[in-house]
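Format notes (please read before filing issues)

Several people have asked whether sequences and structure tokens are stored in separate files. They are not. Every record keeps both together, in the order shown below: the sequence lines, then the token lines. Line labels are part of the format and must not be stripped during preprocessing.
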Amino acid sequence: MKRMYLFYGVLVSVVCSLFTGCISFSFRCPYRIDEVTVTAGGENRSVKLQFFLFNDSFREIRSLQVVFRLYDTEGVLLSDDETAAVCLQAVAPGDRTLCTVPLEAFMDSALSAPASVEDLYVRQIRYTDGASWKDVFGMYAYQAVILP
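Then the structure lines:
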């Protein structure tokens, strides 16, 4: 009887160790966002969200879906609760690249630029090997960019 308890105790310990290791690995964020800016104007009076994305994984990124919120100068949300856009941007492992999202489709034509971009994050990453990574709850959101 003691041998059976010992066997189950060891089995539970091994399974818990493996499960804990898998969980901690799966919650690692495979990217970093920095230098977020919104530019307005130019020849065609375009408004663009730009940010640098660092691929912190060992796979090459094929495309990504970014989610964010746009607010006007009075703090009113310019579109739906969250705005999503797809960037077809290849990023090699360990590389950093500039991502650009045109914002005209998400804004009222009377506005020249949004006043702030908040809760910017990558909802889904698709890799060239067919794998994907998702953050459906925005756990790794870049908090806010207040514009002049």
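For reference, the curators noted about this record: The mean pLDDT is 78. The first helix runs from residue 2 to 26.
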